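Module 6 notes. Inverse folding takes a fixed backbone as the condition and produces residue identities as the prediction. Think of it as a translation problem where the source language is geometry and the target language is the twenty amino acids. Below is one complete input and output pair. Work through it position by position during the lab.
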């Protein structure tokens, strides 16, 4: 343990004293005759719980432990709170009550009106730990964001990875700092007035270290998913599977004092029960919020384009607080870059019109034809609910799933980046930034893994290169996910924010976030109150936000943009601009926020 870790808030993650009695229980309906708990090499039989079908329970000494089913090999606890030796090793108890939280008086941060910042602990700093990330919280405070969204932190094989191959859904990846490391990060963030959101994955588990099928029907073949068998949410045994996922979610919010959860790919949660899993989850989270007197929230990643996801449960919805808005991203990306491949195709036909539609209607595909899907897609979004959509210029997906992991800053000028930032941060949506975006980071963010199984590592390597070869990429140009250099290239360079041209863009992001906070009309979530004028050929658009105009010139020459009323003040600008009566003159690739 480093000196820095010794000074951090909270106790060390000490191993519990050996020999102390402890109660053990596990849901293992797959076990026919016998379940044992093995503690530090010694086996202790468990008895069937006569009150709960499929459960086994008993007393044994405290220590590192594993379960054996019908004399089989030792398996980690499905509800393991800690995996000190990785996903394949024994489990270790965690006394959540022993952590010394600061007395910050933190009462939470609601999602409406907030600005989020998505980051990956492993590449946010060179050290790749919670404690190292804590050292840069002041940067986020000065930037002006309200909530830090952490990519998944559950254990996965090896040291490096995105986190979406996690297993042990109640535990924390040890190389990041384990359970106490996450608590120290959350505690430090709260001391600085920042809330914390955690990305969780309920739709699948990683291909390595997943022992749940040995215990019981955690998965079902009733549905096909990109990852194989679906998580069992509606087949026999699904009551306990749902309880497992609900318990994990509530533990993050209760034991780690997380403020909200981002739910990965909820469209892959196959569930035909009368009460959908998401509805049950949102109900339980609301109950916990009342019990803890803190605003707790859920954010869904969904490509279904249905307002049912965020509609109140009483109105037949699932009660999720907000959802990611890929439509807005795709429209903005197509407008800025000109890319038209894949799902960008529909947006690239008239990109400024697509931006205008998403800013005023929420969804681009609202029961319209999707060429990417080969069918009609979506339904209209409620006009007064813009805050229920997250708007962004970049995310981990939209960067890391490119062949080279190249950020948008690799192909756009500073002016174009500033235009994109202005449209995000003055939008009716809940804005979200991806780490390093605020200074136009030159570092890529690539797809990296550290699989310890050689066969799996080779399959991932070949699969990644085969995928992009189908789109014309040479195999040797696609980074090897298993190569250490791939993750090293993806680490942020913290010397960049203070150097030109990055410092100017960083200052622009800070000004925009400050404007959004100070001038309420720029954060108004009412989509019906937004009006957009644009000229597709000249490549300019003007967004009307109450008494403000966000004027964007994406053309390659100067242009006069109509304001609809005499301009009184340039509240903020990036690039040359000048008011001229009821218009504003902007240089090429420039943007201004004007008061009329």
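Target side of the pair, the amino acids:
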């Amino acid at each position: 343990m480093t000196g820095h870790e010794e000074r951090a808030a909270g106790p060390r993650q000490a191993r519990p004293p050996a020999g102390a009695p402890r109660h053990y229980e596990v849901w293992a309906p797959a076990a026919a005759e016998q379940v044992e708990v093995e503690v530090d090499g010694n086996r202790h039989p468990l008895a069937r719980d006569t009150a709960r079908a499929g459960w086994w329970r008993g007393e044994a000494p405290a220590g590192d432990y594993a379960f054996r089913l019908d004399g089989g090999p030792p398996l980690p606890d499905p509800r393991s709170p800690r995996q000190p030796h990785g996903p394949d090793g024994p489990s270790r108890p965690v006394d959540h009550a022993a952590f010394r939280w600061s007395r910050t008086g933190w009462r939470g941060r609601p999602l409406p009106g907030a600005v989020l910042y998505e980051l990956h602990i492993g590449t946010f700093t060179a050290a790749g730990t919670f404690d190292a990330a804590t050292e840069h919280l002041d940067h986020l405070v000065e930037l002006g964001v309200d909530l830090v969204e952490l990519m998944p932190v559950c254990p996965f094989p090896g040291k490096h990875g995105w986190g979406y191959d996690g297993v042990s859904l109640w535990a924390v990846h040890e190389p990041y700092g384990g359970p106490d490391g996450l608590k120290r990060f959350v505690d430090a963030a709260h001391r600085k007035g920042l809330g914390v959101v955690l990305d969780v994955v309920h739709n699948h588990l990683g291909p390595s270290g997943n022992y749940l099928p040995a215990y019981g029907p955690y998965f079902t073949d009733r549905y096909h998913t990109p990852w194989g068998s679906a998580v069992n949410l509606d087949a026999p045994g699904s009551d306990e599977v749902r309880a497992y996922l609900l318990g994990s979610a509530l533990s993050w919010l209760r034991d780690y004092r997380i403020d909200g959860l981002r739910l990965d790919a909820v469209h892959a949660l196959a569930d035909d029960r009368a009460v959908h899993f998401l509805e049950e989850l949102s109900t339980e989270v609301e109950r916990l919020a009342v019990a803890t007197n803190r605003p707790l929230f859920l954010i869904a990643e969904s490509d279904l384009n249905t307002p049912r996801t965020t509609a109140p449960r009483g109105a037949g919805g699932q009660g999720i607080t907000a959802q990611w808005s890929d439509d807005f991203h795709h429209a903005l990306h197509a407008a800025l870059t000109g890319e038209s491949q894949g799902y960008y195709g529909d947006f690239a036909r008239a990109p400024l019109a697509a931006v205008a539609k998403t800013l005023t209607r929420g969804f681009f595909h609202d029961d319209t034809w999707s060429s990417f899907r080969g069918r009609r897609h979506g339904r209209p979004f409620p006009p007064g609910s813009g805050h229920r959509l997250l708007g962004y210029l970049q995310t981990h997906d939209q960067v890391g799933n490119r062949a080279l992991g190249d950020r948008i800053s690799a192909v756009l000028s500073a002016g174009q980046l500033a235009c994109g930032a202005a449209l995000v941060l003055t939008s009716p949506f809940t804005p979200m930034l991806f780490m390093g975006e605020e200074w136009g980071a030159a570092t890529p963010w690539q797809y990296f893994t550290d699989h310890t199984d050689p066969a799996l590592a080779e399959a991932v390597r070949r699969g990644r290169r085969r995928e992009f070869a189908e789109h014309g990429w040479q195999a040797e140009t696609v980074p090897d996910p298993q190569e250490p250099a791939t993750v090293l290239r993806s680490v942020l360079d913290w010397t960049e924010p203070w150097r030109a041209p990055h410092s100017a863009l960083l200052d622009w992001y800070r000004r925009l976030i400050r404007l959004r906070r100070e001038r309420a009309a720029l954060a108004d979530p009412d989509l019906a109150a937004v009006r957009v004028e644009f000229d597709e050929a000249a490549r300019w658009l003007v967004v009307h936000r109450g008494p403000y105009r966000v004027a964007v010139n994406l053309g390659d020459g100067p242009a006069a943009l109509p304001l609809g009323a005499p301009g009184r003040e340039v509240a903020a600008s990036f690039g040359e601009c000048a008011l001229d009566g009821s218009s504003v003159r902007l240089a090429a690739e420039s943007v201004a926020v004007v008061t009329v």
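Reference fact for the lab report: Residues 375 and 416 are 33 Å apart (CA to CA).
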